[in-house]
Specification:
Blueprint lengths: L4 E7 L8 E7 L7 E10 L2 H8 L22 E2 L3 E9 L11 E4 L2 E3 L8 E4 L11 E5 L3 E3 L7 H5 L1 H14 L7 E4 L5 H12 L3 E6 L4 H6 L4 E4 L4 H8 L4 E6 L5 H5 L3 E9 L12 H5 L4 E4 L5 H12 L7 E6 L3 H10 L5 E5 L1
Parallel strand pairs: 11-12, 11-14, 12-13, 14-15, 15-16, 17-18
Antiparallel strand pairs: 1-2, 1-4, 3-5, 3-9, 3-18, 5-6, 6-10, 7-8
């Protein structure tokens, strides 16, 4: 390809929407072992907001301005979730890949094994997909040419569905168990509902009044209104308690609902939309042999399984809205309002 510059949106520092800067940037050149992807769609995540705001804190300094895994190298092109087509390849990569429709695994791993853990993220620790082109390791690009999903739907998968699958796998969700999903109308929440239902679980989902029907349509057996008496609603829906909580909200939800987890149950958390500083009665944890699991994204094995599901059309990501690239600030503002159901995407 001969194009030398591209449209992109980058953040110039931590702050509000004003730090999102449309820019002309050089088209990145794929290095050895990498490919160049022409971006068809890039999905937004809460990580985009929190990285821009610097909301992650640092070990020992929770109030520090920092990105997902620490300091961010500015300016940074955001966007972890990329679907597109391979436009060029770097040294050592087969030219037969050019033209393939792909999804990029956005995780930067701590090793090369199938169970490696993510220690960085595209759009945070390296440039991402708020641009016409992005580079990625060839080993992290998955061929979705035959998938029945649209480009928007494919872009909705990596972080939301990858995080959801990682939570479910780490919690060892088994068929016949009862799973309680918090934040069920968001991208990760809807993914949790769909995957847990497909795994044969009885799914209880927490959402708000305006979104209850959409969450039910996504596969939840029972939808609970977070504005009501949540412990009472959970007891009514699951008199014997729940086996597993799949939680992206945390905050006051944890002390309120922890006593409703069955003996030997699991509480898996991958977000803190409701607050990160909580108090719990630790006796409820150890006296009932409850396992508390932190889950950050996925492993390469999880992601490969996710891509197999997408290739087979086993998933149905919900797209709430699509924006052109130059409206990235408006898209992030809409994401922050949390009035939507599903995923918001940009189309470079």
């Amino acid at each position: 390809m001969t194009q030398r510059t591209m449209r992109a949106v980058r953040i110039t520092g931590h702050g509000g929407l004003e730090v999102l800067e449309p820019a002309e940037a050089p088209v990145p050149v794929p290095r050895a072992g990498e490919v160049l992807v022409q971006v068809s769609a890039v999905a937004l995540n809460n990580t985009d907001l929190w990285t821009r705001e610097g909301s992650y804190g640092l070990p020992g300094d929770p109030g520090a301005l920092a990105g997902w895994r620490g300091p961010v190298d500015f300016p940074r092109i955001q966007g972890a979730d990329v679907a597109g087509r391979i436009a060029a390849v770097g040294p050592g990569v087969s030219p037969d890949l050019v033209g393939r429709r792909v999804v990029v695994d956005p995780a930067l791993y701590d090793g090369v094994g199938p169970d490696a853990n993510p220690l960085g993220l595209m759009g945070s620790e390296r440039d991402g997909g708020y641009a016409e082109y992005v580079t990625a390791p060839a080993a992290r690009v998955h061929d979705m040419t035959a998938s029945p999903l649209s480009d928007d739907q494919l872009a909705a998968l990596p972080t939301a569905y990858g995080t959801a699958l990682g939570m479910i796998e780490r919690a060892r969700l088994a068929p016949g168990e009862t799973a309680l999903v918090s934040g069920a109308s968001g991208g990760v929440g809807l993914a949790l509902v769909q995957i847990a239902r497909a795994r044969g679980a009885t799914v209880l989902a927490i959402s708000s009044g305006a979104k209850l029907d959409a969450v039910h349509d996504a596969g939840a057996h029972t939808v609970l209104d977070r504005a009501g008496d949540l412990p009472g609603q959970v007891r009514a829906a699951a008199p014997d308690g729940v086996d597993i909580v799949l939680d992206v909200v945390a905050g006051d939800l944890v002390p309120a609902l922890l006593p409703l987890v069955r003996e030997g149950g699991r509480w898996t958390v991958a977000g803190a939309l409701g607050g990160h500083d909580i108090n719990i009665d630790i006796r409820r944890l150890y006296l009932h042999n409850i396992t508390l699991i932190g889950s950050s994204m996925h492993t390469p094995t999880h992601f490969r399984h996710l891509m197999d599901m997408a290739a087979n059309g086993d998933l149905n990501p919900v797209i709430a809205a699509a924006y052109p690239l130059d409206q990235a600030a408006a898209a992030q503002a809409a994401l922050a309002q949390r009035t939507h159901v599903g995923k918001i995407v940009l189309r470079p």
